[in-house]
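Re: weekly structure request thread

Next one in the queue (303 aa):
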Amino acid sequence: MLNRNEKILLRADGNSTIGLGHVYRLLALADILKDDFEIVFAISSPDEYLKSVIKNYVHSIIELPSVQYKLPALKKTKDEIPFDLISYLNGNEIVVTDGYWFGEQYQKAVKATGAKLVCIDDLAENHFFADAVINHAPGIKAEQYKGEPYTKYYLGLDYALLRKDFFKPLAANRKAQSVFISMGGSDQYDILEKVSAAALSSSLFTEINLLIASSFPQEVVARLNNSTTNANIIIHQNLSASALVQLMDSCESAIVSASTLLLECYNRGMICFAGYYTANQKSIYNGFVSENKAIGLGDLNIF
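Done, posted below.
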């Protein structure tokens, strides 16, 4: 059992290449545990805005050296980053990783310190040496995973990792024909621009709300800002969890990538249109579409 004296070290990265979903899932976990345990977040080279967000949920931050990540589409199954926590573990911690680059060698290195290990995962590609694996995609089965005999699996929407604000009572101020659009913390393929242009030209929506992150490249932000000459488009950036919930509750529909964003929108009672643009989003996408919890848009790379 956990106790109040135990330290939980959360390890994830977020930037314009890999997005911010891994970070926000761990912040949801921190939100649940921070009143009872010492929570430390280890992250490589966070920007100032992301660092300020993390500080709201944890007791301290470890800033690690920069990691050069590939685009998700270019990642190979065996690609992983070197173990970077040896100086911060004494074996009494619980380490929680979220990201596809904390592979088998990284997991073994955590376990070798004596620490407990929990992996947040929605790919089910590697062999897992973790004590526990959490995957909140609907429809996922333990049989899809390879792991050690001691590894336990916590699967499905009952284990959704969302910040507390997303479980507040629903507001009653939805605007008809309003839509919330976001592709998460990265937009390497300019999908947000294409989707927002399609929403605008469809005449289905009288108000289009675009969410962008601090990690977006400046040239993308500039192009999106140019699009706001149309009065129907409103751009939102760097919203707190409570502000994001307020925005979602004002919109009737959502067009989002099949990521944590989809779980957030679904939990706020929106009509959800979802697509995917990386392999790791297919699990959540397939689960939501097959269970009629979202309307599928397919591969957004060919939108």
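The chain has eight helices and 15 strands. The helical segments are 21-33, 48-55, 104-112, 191-202, 218-227, 241-250, 260-267, 282-290.
Next request, please.
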